[in-house]
Design a protein that fits this description.
- This protein is α+β, with helices and mostly antiparallel strands.
- Helices cover 46% and strands 12% of the residues.
- The protein has five helices and five strands; from the N terminus they run H-E-H-E-E-H-E-E-H-H.
- The strands form two sheets. A three-stranded antiparallel sheet has the order 1-5-4.
- A hairpin with a 4-residue loop joins strand 2 and strand 3.
- Helix 1 crosses helix 4.
- The longest helix has 14 residues.
- The protein is globular and about 35 Å long.
- The relative contact order is 0.25.
Length: 125
C-alpha cells in the first residue's frame, strides 16, 4: 500500500537552514536575494538522484524568471528566528547570522548525502 499523505523528508524551512549553514561553512554570509532561487532550481534540475530534497519546494518558471514561495517562506521563517536578516534600504541582500560552530551543529542534523549536496549547492553562490 502506498502512503499518500506523508511528511517530506526535508521541509523547505530545513532546506534553507541547511543551505545557510553550508554557505557559512563556505564563508559566504551575504547573498543577493535575487540570486537565491535560480541556482537552487538549476541544481535540482541537474541532480535527479536528490529530488527527495525538493519535495516540499515548488518552483514556478517563466521565460527569464524562477520563483518559489516555499523558499521565500523558509527565508522569512529563518528571519523570524534570527538566523538571517535582510539589509536595508531595499532588502536586496540576505545576511546569515550563524557562527561556524552553529553551522556545524545544523549540518550534523542532516544525513551525509544531504550535507554533501548542500555544500555543493553552496558553491554556486
Amino acid at each position: 500500500m502506498e502512503l499518500v499523505c506523508a511528511r517530506p523528508p526535508i521541509s523547505s524551512y530545513n532546506f534553507m537552514r541547511y543551505l545557510c549553514a553550508s554557505l557559512v561553512k563556505r564563508s559566504k554570509v551575504i547573498i543577493d536575494l535575487d540570486s537565491i532561487i535560480s541556482p537552487i532550481y538549476t541544481f535540482k534540475q541537474h541532480n535527479e538522484q536528490l529530488k527527495f530534497m525538493f519535495e516540499d519546494i515548488e518552483f514556478r518558471t517563466s521565460i527569464d524568471n524562477v520563483i518559489s514561495n516555499d523558499i521565500s517562506e523558509g527565508i522569512n521563517n529563518l528571519q523570524t528566528f534570527g538566523v538571517v536578516g535582510k539589509l536595508n534600504p531595499k532588502y536586496e541582500k540576505l545576511v546569515i547570522y550563524l557562527t561556524v560552530d552553529k553551522a556545524d551543529e545544523i549540518l550534523a542534523e542532516c544525513p551525509d548525502k544531504v550535507g554533501n549536496a548542500m555544500m555543493e549547492l553552496a558553491s554556486f553562490f
